[in-house]
Amino acid sequence: MKLEMIVNQPVIETERFDLRPLRASDAGLIEMYASDARVAMNTSSIPHPLPPGTTEGIIARAHADDRIEDFWAMDASKVGGSELMGLISLVRLDRDQSEVGYWVAPAYWNTGVASTAVEALLAANPHNARTTFASVFQDNAASARVLTNCGFQYLGDAETFCVARGAKVATWTYSRKAD
Hints:
Blueprint: E1 12-13, E2 18-21, H1 27-34, H2 37-40, H3 54-63, E3 69-75, E4 86-93, E5 97-104, H4 113-124, E6 131-137, H5 141-149, E7 153-162, E8 167-177
Parallel strand pairs: 5-6
Antiparallel strand pairs: 1-2, 2-3, 3-4, 4-5, 6-8, 7-8
């Protein structure tokens, strides 16, 4: 019997779903969704095709005592929905700052899941960040809309390496001050 690790991280509730720490049982759904090229191509860090062990590595990182990034599953099981619709994370940065990142399974695109998750995470502010940053690929207008709808302000253009694309990709960078 494998015991679940307890992660010192809050569960953040919304009407539609909860943001909860990752658990080992999430591996199958994370792998299924992260293996989708449409998901991987819109993140900087998910490789495509997804190598064996990647999902277990994400969960192990999420449970590490010395982690700088907290991960939450978007879990709608409390309302009869999926246990995992996507992931959202916060990376601790210097000077009371964090960076948010997220992906949503294609079945839940254009349903408000990402906006609800980002807004809930910002409202909870588990890192007590004064400023939160985010970047999106310039060819992902839907993700840019999520950020602007959640009160993020455009800062400028940059680029980052996308593992799945094997190339640098132009990004838009945003920030939002804590309320």
